[in-house]
Amino acid sequence: MGVYGVISGKGGVGKSLVTSLLAVESNRRGLTTAILDGDLTGPSIPKAFNLKDNLLGVDGLIEPAETKTGIQVVSINLMLDDPSQPVLWKGPLLGGAIDQFWKETNWKHVDMTFIDMPPGTGDIAMKVMTDIPLDGLILVTTPQDLVQMIMKKAANMAKKLNIPIIGLVENMSYYICPNCNTKHEIFGPSQVKEVAEEIGALSHVSLGMSEEIRKLVDSGNIEEIKETGLSSIVDKLIAKE
């Protein structure tokens, strides 16, 4: 089973979107795929897949939710009566939840697991990267210098822990005007190739801003996307197995 963390330096760069798209792409390849939503204080995976029912416990194990196409998901938001309520836990409780999701979930013959990690290099990121046997990381950034600087902290953390960086995803890389078809680099010129070389990522892709993706995520229908844009990264993950 391949286990891959998805991490960014800062929040709001599309990390959970990338996690969702990776899972959709993996699932389309015929791999039994799972998502562990490790962003415990900002969980958004259930929204992208329109998952609402609370998780059940059977024989002491958590039964993962399943999306319309069979992706298995565990998320703290599927344990709350109201998904808008905050999770007011400190480090030890958050770490315990990660342990429970990883060790006490009835995962069913999973080929590929993606862990949506919280932004930054704090306690939960350290917990995942030291206590779960990751096969690699996918880093998410945008073209902005500030975002890339913070993302490199996560890259350097991975290097210190000897975790390979499989892919770098530069999200919000461009916007194509629907009226004139002009490509606009709203957040600055793409630096994904240079940054990927700098951090030692094995592959890299750029994703544009898309109204289609926004609508699919907001409606919980991310699995209906025509092209994920992440096929080259999933190719690398499959080749690694």
Automatic annotation (TrEMBL):
<keyword id="KW-0547">Nucleotide-binding</keyword>
<dbReference type="InterPro" id="IPR033756">
    <property type="entry name" value="YlxH/NBP35"/>
</dbReference>
<dbReference type="Pfam" id="PF10609">
    <property type="entry name" value="ParA"/>
</dbReference>
<dbReference type="GO" id="GO:0140663">
    <property type="term" value="F:ATP-dependent FeS chaperone activity"/>
</dbReference>
<keyword id="KW-0479">Metal-binding</keyword>
<dbReference type="InterPro" id="IPR027417">
    <property type="entry name" value="P-loop_NTPase"/>
</dbReference>
<keyword id="KW-0408">Iron</keyword>
<comment type="similarity">
    <text>Belongs to the Mrp/NBP35 ATP-binding proteins family.</text>
</comment>
<keyword id="KW-0378">Hydrolase</keyword>
<dbReference type="GO" id="GO:0016887">
    <property type="term" value="F:ATP hydrolysis activity"/>
</dbReference>
<dbReference type="GO" id="GO:0016226">
    <property type="term" value="P:iron-sulfur cluster assembly"/>
</dbReference>
<dbReference type="InterPro" id="IPR019591">
    <property type="entry name" value="Mrp/NBP35_ATP-bd"/>
</dbReference>
<feature type="binding site">
    <location>
        <begin position="9"/>
        <end position="16"/>
    </location>
    <ligand>
        <name>ATP</name>
    </ligand>
</feature>
<dbReference type="GO" id="GO:0046872">
    <property type="term" value="F:metal ion binding"/>
</dbReference>
<dbReference type="GO" id="GO:0005524">
    <property type="term" value="F:ATP binding"/>
</dbReference>
<keyword id="KW-0067">ATP-binding</keyword>
<comment type="subunit">
    <text>Homodimer.</text>
</comment>
<keyword id="KW-0411">Iron-sulfur</keyword>
<comment type="function">
    <text>Binds and transfers iron-sulfur (Fe-S) clusters to target apoproteins. Can hydrolyze ATP.</text>
</comment>
<dbReference type="GO" id="GO:0051539">
    <property type="term" value="F:4 iron, 4 sulfur cluster binding"/>
</dbReference>
<protein>
    <recommendedName>
        <fullName>Iron-sulfur cluster carrier protein</fullName>
    </recommendedName>
</protein>
<dbReference type="InterPro" id="IPR044304">
    <property type="entry name" value="NUBPL-like"/>
</dbReference>
